[in-house]
Amino acid sequence: MNPEQITLVETSFAHALPVADAVAVCFYDQLFEIAPEMRVLFPEDMREQRRKLMQMLTMVVKGLRNLDRLVPVAMDLGKRHVGYGVQDSHYQTVGAALLWTLEQSLGALFTPEVEDAWTVAYTLLAGTMQVGAEQASVVALAA
């Protein structure tokens, strides 16, 4: 990511943070609308899950300026998600739900440049998580 994209992600996310729970509700509502089969991967009570989502997004946004620290955390997150039943195809669905949520939450602030910056950030996160998931799968097969 270039510095301008990082700034766009940081600035736009700052607008979403004051209404973090509403953003998380919007995200999961959209995710389960476009992929109802994914609902079984989550607990019935979503309060803690919504908090974890916003915590993870905060970590990612803050980590964009220090990828040496972010990448190992994202890889570990990918490894853990294997155990939750997450599949490669889910990453694209989650990305679509995230971008839709940001568009709804940010309104006019969700410019094409902001969308591009978030797409790059999410692609970086998802790709890194998928590498971590692949490593976990290789270790499991070798055991």
Overview of the structural elements:
Helices cover 79% and strands 0% of the residues. With 143 residues, it is an all-alpha fold. The chain has a single domain, classed as Globin-like (Orthogonal Bundle).
- The helix fraction, in percent, is over 70%
Query: Helix-strand pattern, N to C?
Result: HHHHHH
Question: In CATH, what is the homologous superfamily?
Answer: Globins
The assigned CATH architecture is Orthogonal Bundle
The total domain count is 1
Strand content: under 5%
CATH domain fold name: Globin-like
Give the termini distance in whole angstroms: 37 Å
Pick out the low-confidence regions. none
DSSP helix count?
6
Using the alpha-carbon principal axes, give the shape.
Answer: globular
CATH class: Mainly Alpha
* Main β-sheet description: none
Structural class given helices, strands, pairing?
A: mainly alpha
Radius of gyration: 15 Å
Count all strands and give the number: 0
Oligomer: single chain
User: How much is the average pLDDT?
Assistant: 94
Characterize this entry briefly:
By secondary structure, the chain is mostly helical. It contains 6 helices and no strands.
List the helices and strands and how they pair.
Blueprint: H1 3-16, H2 20-34, H3 47-63, H4 67-83, H5 88-106, H6 112-142
What labels would you give this structure?
6 helices, Globin-like, 143 residues, mainly alpha
